Amino acid sequence: MSSQDIPETSLPHEQATESSVATRVDKDPFADPGLPPHEHRIQDIDERAAKRSERTVALLFTVSMLSTVAFIASFVAFPIDKIVYIWPFGRVSALNFSLGLTLGLALFCIGAGAVHWARTLMSDVEVADERHAIEAEPEVKAKVMADFRQGAKESAIGRRKLIRNTMFGALALVPLSGVVLLRDLGPLPEDKLRHTKWAKGKLLVNQNTKEPLRPEDVAVGSLTFAMPEGMDEHDHGFLNEIAKAALMVVRMEPDDIKDKRELEWSHEGIVAYSKICTHVGCPVSLYEQQTHHVLCPCHQSTFDLTDGARVIFGPAGHPLPQLRIGVSEEGYLQALGDFEEPVGPSFWERG
Amino acid sequence: MSTATDTKRKAPAGERVADWADGRLGIYSLAKANMRKIFPDHWSFMLGEVALYTFIIIILTGVYLTLFFHPSMNEVEYAGSYVPMQGVLMSEAYASTLDISFDVRGGLLIRQIHHWAALIFLAAMFVHMMRVFFTGAFRKPREINWLFGFLLFVLGMFTGFTGYSLPDDLLSGTGVRFTQGAILSVPVVGTYISMFLFGGEFPGTDMIARFYSIHILLLPGIMLGLVVAHLILVFYHKHTQFGGAGKTNKNVVGMPLLPVYMAKAGGFFFLVFGIIAAIAAIASINPIWALGPYRPDMVSTGAQPDWYMGFAEGLIRFMPGWEIVLWDSYTLNLGVFIPLVIFPLFLTAIAVYPFIESWITKDKREHHILDRPRNAPTRTAFGAAWIAAYFIMLIGGGNDLWATHFSLSINSITWFVRIFFIAGPILVFIATKRICLGLQRRDRDKVLHGRETGIIKRLPHGEFIEVHEPLSPEELHRLTAHEQYTAGEIGPLVDENGVKRKVSMLEKFRVKLSKGYYAEGNQIPKATAEEYEEITSGHGHH
Q: In chain B, what residues touch A44 (CB-CB under 8 Å)?
């Protein structure tokens, strides 16, 4: 394309004279020179470039239509469980991949077409509009104030104070009904957070095998999760109970146990601790064999199981509660009572 | 037949429909004011658009998801087509989320678009808010709209949180447990709030149904109202613009709504939607099938909330575990309660900033020209410090990931975060302010001495000089058009008659702050016309 095809009159320098650029007479070197003259795009002066833009926009809209057809075809063609390998994404669902990309393309091309249309073919002459102050003119304000005074006067709300005061009273009281209605959202706490399913004589059941634990099942350096006998995950309220009763069973050399009470509450170096973190209640489940530290994966509170589950790092505020255990006559590990303190995160009434 | 002649005289169909509507809704008056409304253009103005469009996408995809999701905690044995979970006991909520992902054609795509759009929505609101902050677009008359936007951001966080808790999978349940633990730490009423919110002990059987109504009705209902109010105010105030040639506080320069802005903004909705659909096609988000249903005695490593809750997660992770037992009978769990208090306070700090700044400047005028961040050094430094604290907390929220990905000690990362939560914002404040002042000096130099061309000239006597090119009138205006406040003064405490004047402590504090903002050394005076004349006319260029 050469410039001689373009009509002389539509060339930028011809048009520049038409736009009015305010000429400054003042001496201020920083004065506002006014809006710069409009600069023409190639589409404004060359109809062939404009045609090209038109074709580009139409092409984008056409691709969008084809993409929607492809979306419907994918929906029908691909079974929902078909997995395909696509580089570099790996093994992906053929349906999800094709639906997403065709929908994405269909939408994107509408957007790209509209934006290209606006940028190349619609007028790009900048226009200035005036702003007006947001606040009202004094006359308007005066009128409103007068109207308000008139209205208030006619209602007699200021004069008949008995009406006003009882109305405020009624309006203040009526939402109370709504508050009262919320009472049955839940029960009162009472001592619910203080008790778990553990009790004297309850056997420690391995959570994986569902079998009662014997001391010889627990090896040094192993971590076993246990729950009280008689709990079944099909039970109503199982999750509420396991949220408090979940137990970690660990065996250490009795000589390694530094805390005196911990040793008393253990059996042959086997100790049982609440699995529920005392920080905000995640299950503590990372066990470091060598040091007998347990770490909560949520917020990294670290407890030393050789020393009464003392907090040695992280945001937890107190040790994990220990469960006192012994051995039943049949040789199974059993609880010698419930936890002596509430398990899980602390709360105001915990004490 | 008269119909043929009637149709000839009749207006086109579109116009007749418009006439009908105008007679009932008054649309012509509305259109007169708005159809050719001018919108200024700048790339940063699209950030709010991204937020608006992702919000619409979230509503569209969310409605679709409600058609298949069962907000119930009834325990069922899974019997759908995802083999690893068959026979596993789970809530109906989790089972129906698996169904959406594996048995409803396109369900996974819509779920992923919904989740990706939510992540982008929050990010867009955050960046949009920062754009408004750093350019001072929150000044009169837009303070209320700033608050509307801020509320949208906060409600968006909670809508997102209740949303990703709905599938009742292991990860989301862990997040809810964290929330419940945090609620328990509230003195006096914490236990009661927890019991009332969860309908008893955690997790109970009401949580999902309650979160569902909060997630799909209560919060989005409020947000929709706020979005509409936000947009009405944008129209009513007219958009802000950057200063420059031809742009004043009294005008608004740009393109008309019809057709350019409508095509660009409308098209941009499709661009955003298209890109998110493509992301949802190629990038998996929240694969709830990976870990299984929630059980309060199970957890995975690397548990992370969605990014916008990460800073709250950080607060709770790096806080030392302070716990006080009062009178042997009450526990004050400061290690959890302090983060719970800092969380809203930290957000409020940025929300109330516009009111603090206008109190310091005592400026009651309307502002429609945006500040360049360098021209408000103290504000910019404050915003940067706030962001620094935010990101330090975010690092704290992912301390385990930083530890595992970069083989660092979790303890040292946590200590780093503890120290830099305080020190980081201070350092960033000082550095940002110095950078702003440096940029102001450079603007001043450019105005007075022109642009450095990079052309080195050797003078006859051997001296080398760099040629400076004077700026165009447009540039000169752009770099000098901003206003500079003068620092406040308390003034004489005793007047000419010897009468003492009382100055309140608050006023003294205000003046002190004002000096910190605008006194010498806290902003660089812009070049004056006199200085310019002296340099350009006096001894010539150098």
A: none
